Predict the structure.
Amino acid sequence: MKEITIKKIENKENYFIAYFKNPVLQASYSVCFPDTVCGAVALNDFFQMLKVKYKDDNFEFNITDKTMKLKNEYLLNQLGR
């Protein structure tokens, strides 16, 4: 079972990041989305993208209370624009 983790973004009101780590490629795939209907659509699109790539695998969502701290101020400021 593959896992998609969802964390709240620290210092960014109502924004979340969902990510999937691929240990073989040593890479992470992610989507940043707001807590809105459009954000739910973006999260679903991310999930569908992963299902196409990994069609023989099942995914589980892990919603955690931990927050994601973005250290890059420029990146943080670009969210939600």
About this structure: The first strand starts at residue 2 and ends at 9. The chain has a mean pLDDT of 93.
